[in-house]
């Protein structure tokens, strides 16, 4: 028997309408570096998004599922693009402005982007690429920045504000199938070509609802979220759509992502929530340690994208800021888990839960798979590769405009689950603890050593600012850990024996203790601010590191 319920498509268009009417007074505040930030209400954002849709259709000829790219910081105009482009049936393609130019060009060409909306301050990145981007017919420039580089370029150039000014404030929004493409995002791609994940209207709608649930970020119109995670990094973890759905105010840092302006904006605007990768929180901690600011408005902060060292969580606890650990991927929209401890526990009892990656919501099914393909129990001990499935999890990668979507065997199981490439354990009560990326695990004499466990233990040492541990070849054991450490400012001289003893004291088994050590000036980072261990492995292989062997 079929149900008797209405079959109403779950679309971004619905989120746009709901946010601009029911939550019309909520605001997007964009940092400008001027004495006053820029403020725009959801009602204004919605109206301008409608005008943008009219402009894209009438001026740029976007009338179907063409890809419209954005090369932008987090700001109000970028939110307008987030709402307008999918709602009109086109596909929003956010470009990662920190990628090497060749990779950026590859991605634009693969997605066959028709137009790009670019922030003026990013023109020096875009303009030299344009001769290699034949599909781009229009460049729409928004916000401050020198325009002189645009003289004589081939695509047509339009100013964002002029383009939308005076356009109709209504639009004949198409009836969309909820399974249609709404947005796309390429993985940061540590190996091989980047892979395009294409989100549907339905996946974005359901993911937005999950983000807003209390068991996830739990945001309402009483909140202001500081969206540090870039809008090109998995749709800013879904926040712009989720917040528009629930009327949550957004504080957007634009290009002011350095620790000092971030601390200033938190003190002044008093956001109640924020979302960013651990590197950002490390930088902010160093800043407020040197120049104290009041961060206490942030009762609830989401930290993810890479493992959060427990020492970082402890340091923020002392500042009155509670970090909540989350795990996800570009392929999972990204919300996979969040580490809210179960009810009824004391602070001390909560701690072992807070340092895990967290619990799965109902929309994310999980299983652990052992090396022989066997499914492992959730006993907190059996370690295997995490596989997931659910309505906001990718089933394939974009195959290009002429091709079929791709389902590589190493990324998708035969029965359609996503192979995450993350290795970990799940407790009997469903909390995930990741021990490593499959490719970062150190395989020493047939046993596995978790690089993340070593890093977390090292980063708890008072002299250590950051630590990255990688596998290096070893004649006797196959692989052994190499510990690279960044010392805190003002610390001179390193006693590796003392660091090793510190690891042993913190509970690391003797056979797992690294014998190779190196002090490095900074841990190399990927385009989204994660430790880039392949660079360290390469530096080691090419003899570029000054390594001490104990
Ligand atoms: P990306 O698609 O670039 O966001 O990268 C996703 C990957 O980041 C995951 O597969 C994990 O390896 C890693 N990651 C994300 N969140 C966490 C976390 N909380 N702890 C450890 N690794 C994480």
TrEMBL record:
CDD domains: ttLC_FACS_AlkK_like. SUPFAM superfamilies: Acetyl-CoA synthetase-like. Residues 36-398 form the AMP-dependent synthetase/ligase domain. The keyword Ligase applies. Residues 453-530 form the AMP-binding enzyme C-terminal domain. One of its GO terms (molecular function) is ligase activity. PROSITE patterns: AMP_BINDING. The keyword Coiled coil does not apply. It holds the Pfam family AMP-binding_C. Keywords: Ligase. InterPro entries: AMP-bd_C, AMP-bd_C_sf, AMP-binding_CS, AMP-dep_synth/lig_dom, ANL_N_sf, ATP-dep_AMP-bd_enzyme. PANTHER family: LONG-CHAIN-FATTY-ACID--COA LIGASE, MEDIUM-CHAIN-FATTY-ACID--COA LIGASE. This is Long-chain fatty acid--CoA ligase. It comes from Streptomyces durocortorensis.
């Amino acid at each position: 028997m079929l149900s008797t319920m209405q079959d109403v498509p779950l679309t971004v268009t619905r989120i746009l309408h709901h946010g601009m009417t029911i939550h019309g007074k909520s605001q997007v505040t964009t940092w400008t570096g001027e004495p006053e930030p820029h403020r725009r209400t959801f009602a204004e954002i919605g109206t301008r998004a409608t005008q943008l849709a009219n402009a894209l259709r009438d001026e740029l000829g976007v009338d179907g599922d063409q890809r419209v790219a954005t090369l932008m910081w987090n700001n109000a105009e970028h939110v307008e693009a987030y709402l307008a482009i999918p709602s009109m049936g086109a596909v929003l393609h956010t470009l990662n402005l920190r990628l090497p130019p060749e990779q950026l060009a590859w991605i634009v060409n693969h997605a066959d982007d028709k137009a790009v909306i670019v922030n003026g301050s990013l023109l020096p990145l875009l303009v030299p690429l344009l001769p290699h981007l034949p599909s781009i017919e229009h460049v729409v420039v928004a916000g401050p920045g020198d325009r002189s580089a645009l003289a004589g370029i081939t695509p047509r150039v339009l100013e964002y504000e002029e383009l939308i000014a005076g356009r109709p404030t209504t639009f004949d929004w198409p009836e969309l199938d909820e399974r249609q493409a709404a947005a796309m995002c390429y993985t940061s791609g540590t190996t091989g070509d980047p892979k395009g994940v294409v989100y549907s209207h339905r996946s974005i709608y359901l993911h937005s609802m999950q983000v807003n649930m209390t068991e996830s970020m739990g945001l309402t119109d009483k909140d202001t979220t500081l969206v540090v995670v870039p809008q090109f990094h998995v749709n800013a973890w879904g926040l712009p759509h989720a917040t528009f759905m629930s009327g949550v105010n957004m504080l957007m840092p634009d290009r002011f992502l350095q620790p000092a302006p971030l601390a200033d904006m938190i003190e002044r605007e008093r956001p109640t929530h924020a979302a960013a990768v651990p590197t950002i929180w490390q930088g902010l901690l160093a800043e407020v340690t040197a120049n104290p600011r009041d961060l206490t408005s942030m009762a609830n902060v989401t930290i993810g994208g890479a493992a959060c060292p427990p020492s970082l969580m402890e340091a923020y606890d002392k500042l009155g800021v509670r970090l909540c650990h989350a795990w996800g991927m570009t392929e999972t929209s990204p919300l996979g888990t969040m580490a809210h401890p179960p009810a009824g526990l004391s602070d001390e009892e909560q701690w072992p839960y807070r340092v895990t990656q967290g619990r799965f919501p109902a929309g994310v099914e999980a299983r652990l798979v052992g090396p022989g393909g066997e499914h492992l129990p959730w006993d907190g001990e059996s370690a295997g590769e995490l596989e997931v499935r659910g309505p906001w999890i990718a089933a394939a990668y974009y195959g290009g405009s002429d091709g079929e979507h791709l389902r590589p065997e190493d990324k998708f199981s035969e029965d359609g689950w996503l192979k995450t490439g993350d290795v970990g354990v799940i407790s009997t009560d469903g909390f995930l603890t990741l021990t490593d990326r499959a490719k970062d695990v150190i395989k020493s004499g047939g046993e596995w050593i978790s690089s993340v466990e070593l890093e977390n233990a090292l980063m708890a040492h008072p002299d250590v600012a950051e630590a990255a541990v990688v596998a290096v070849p070893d004649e006797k054991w196959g692989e052994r850990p190499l510990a690279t450490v960044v010392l805190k400012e003002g610390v001179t001289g390193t006693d590796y024996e003392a660091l090793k003893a510190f690891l042993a004291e913190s509970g690391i088994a003797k056979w797992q203790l690294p014998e190779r050590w190196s002090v490095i000036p900074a841990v190399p980072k990927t385009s989204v601010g994660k430790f880039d261990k392949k660079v360290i492995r390469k530096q080691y292989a090419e003899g570029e590191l000054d390594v001490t062997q104990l």
